[in-house]
Amino acid sequence: MSALIVSTPFLPAEPLRKRAPAFDEHGKALSDFMMLFPGLVKKPQHHIQATVEHIQKVFAQFDQAVVFAELNLKLSLLWISVKPIPGIRFQIAEALRAVIPEARLVSHI
C-alpha cells in the first residue's frame, strides 16, 4: 500500500473518484468504504497526528489488503479502498475502532 494521504481543508484536490483506484493489479474490482472521525478537524494538532499514526499502524497490519486510503480532515472522513477479500472491510473497521473508539463506519460498497 502507498502511504496514507492526508488532505487539508485548504488545498483543492481532484475528485476522489478520479484519484482512488477502482481495480487491483490483476484487474479485480476493489471494494471501498468510509470511516468517520467525528470532530477530528477541531482537535488539537497532536491529537490529529496521533490519529493518523493509529490509522497507519492498523493499515500496516492489513498491508496486503489496503490499496488506497485518504483522510479528508475537512470532513473528518477516511476513504479506504481494499482488495476483494471477504470480510476485510469489517476487520479493518473493527481494528480502527479498537484504537480510535470514536471512529464510525459510514458506508461500504
Structure explained in plain terms:
The chain has 109 residues and is an alpha+beta fold. The protein has one domain: 2-Layer Sandwich (Alpha-Beta Plaits). The protein has 3 helices and 5 strands, in the order βαβαββαβ. Helix 2 runs antiparallel to helix 3. The longest helix is centred in the middle third of the chain and has 17 residues, at 45-61. It is globular, with a radius of gyration of 13 Å. The mean pLDDT is 87.
CATH architecture: 2-Layer Sandwich
* Whole-angstrom Rg: 13 Å
Strand-residue proportion:
15-25%
Task: Give the strand tally.
Answer: 5
**Spatial order of strands in the largest sheet:** 1-3-4-2-5
Tell me which oligomeric state these chains represent: single chain
Taken in chain order, the helices and strands follow as EHEHEEHE
Features:
30% helix, single chain, 109 residues, Alpha-Beta Plaits, alpha+beta, 5-stranded mixed sheet, 5 strands
Quick structural summary:
With 109 residues, the chain is an alpha+beta fold. It is built from 3 helices and 5 strands; from the N terminus they run E-H-E-H-E-E-H-E.
Please outline the helices and strands.
Layout: E1 5-7, H1 16-19, E2 31-36, H2 45-61, E3 66-72, E4 77-82, H3 88-99, E5 104-108
Parallel strand pairs: 1-3
Antiparallel strand pairs: 2-4, 2-5, 3-4
